[in-house]
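Limitations
The structure tokens in this dataset are predictions for the assembled complex, not deposited experimental models. Users should treat interface geometry with appropriate caution, especially where small molecules or nucleic acid strands are included. An illustrative entry is reproduced here so readers can see what is and is not provided.
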Amino acid sequence: MNLKAKTFELRKDVLTLIHRARTGHIGGDFSVIDILTVLYYKQMNISPEKMDHPDRDRFVLSKGHSVEALYAILSDLGFFPKSELDNYSQYGSKYIGHPNNKINGIEMNSGSLGHGLPVSIGMALAGKLDQKDYRVYTVMGDGELAEGSVWEGAMAAGHYRLDNLCAVVDRNRLQISGGTETVMAHDPLELRFASFGWNVLSIPGNDVDALNDAFDLARRAKGKPTVIIANTTKGCGVSFMENQAGWHHRVPTDEEYQKGMEELEQRRLAAL
Amino acid sequence: MNKIPNRQAICEVLMEHAAADKDIIVMCSDSRGSASLAPYAAAFPEQFVETGIAEQNLVSIAAGLASCGKKVFAASPACFLASRSLEQSKVDVAYSHTNVTLIGISGGVSYGALGMTHHSAQDIAAMASIPNMRVYLPSDRHQTRKLIETLLLDTDPAYIRVGRNPVEDIYMEDNVPFAFNKATVLSEGEDLTIIACGEMVRPALEASNLLAGEGITCSVLDMYCVKPFDTETALAAIRKSKAVITVEEHTTIGGLGAMVSQLAASRCPKFVRNLGLPDEPVVTGTSAQVFAHYGLIGEGIAASARDLLKKIS
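Predicted assembly:
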């Protein structure tokens, strides 16, 4: 499968979903979607029919507000019919604006930031205790790293040497009110994680090949958890949304929607 | 006088079951000693997870373990567990519906003169207001045992609060009337219903005995299951009483007393007096001194009862 082309197809689904429902976090969806695509289409051992299998890999979307990107992928892979997304954010729907584990394919509820890493640590510890080979993945936002609970988790994962755990930071350097280094600085982020006992990989985060290589490397790292600092672009894929904090959760107008869809289709075709 | 605190009874039950059930995991936040869980940690190191002084991590990791099939019992002082990690309890345990039993140790004013940072006079209100979270305050070691044995059999989230000190037995070792999620009726009377939970059940019984000597008969309910609150048993007792008194080691805002008042007002209006801790920093002292100060002892409860009955007559 051409993963790069797939990411643009999925971006079109996300844009359509958000435009139709008039709600969503498009900037973060577009920065994280390459990470999720590589995990779901290439790396993780999960399938719609086996979400109760004890040996499946686990995934927790800690930056839960990027749920639209996850919905696009889960529906594309058949975890639920695409038509169910017509109910996204609608009255009485289970397809809410953050991950909900009543939906097939979603392990844990998230949305409050700083929870995904420690929850994933529990999953990884259970794997170690049961001597299972499954891997645990979680994706955090970079703004999220200001939550103290992230660092409680970073400490524990290093302490327990959880090499079956791979965390990804969607390092797009923007959060709702501006640049992360202005709001609350995280650099030197690589050194921070390394000092907590992590194996640290820093890569171009919207590059599916670099992501795939990084996940392969993480598998081979023993005795340490791995964090992949995925250096991404917020709004990646639609030029007028890129690197604009304002597109954190702005809803596109009809004109913007058309323009965005055209650009995404051009990029999809160029990737083929 | 019993020397075994309720927290130790919890450890005993978990140790009895952990060898046969490898999915039982006990977690602590630098609290294995204060939770009386050191013997468990020594006997079952493979089924024990320590997070250090990190309550948020404790609860989230517990939820992650439980999502992979573990039966997790996470212990930490109630003052921290029910406030510092309240959001993790709400999101990762209750909302995600994971099989975690949160054990708040040294609850209420157990820590006495250590002061307000170490008191948990709001844990019932905080935990009970979370959808899908159950709240239990067992009254003695025997009931604590029954409760843990029962919770080992189900997969739903729960919060248990126990005190630091041994409390006198309410029940006898070979005779512990216990029905899950049903209050235990300790006595039946016509004049007053006293509903209590946790360590306040003992003084409630003492008050009932004092009042009996004066010809005032009381129904005394051990409402260990604060949530799901046993409406049926409470209503049956309230209906045949002239008035109701509630007693809890908790602020009178949002706890057992508030629940009883709400029930009585909506289903069977009677005068209800809520005894508990005031909405202010608790007076310095041992827990016994604090209880005496606020009238949360047999004589104090009896005095409140006399006053209430006089007012309504």
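Some entries come with short summary sentences. For this one: Chain A touches chain B through 29 residues (CB under 8 Å).
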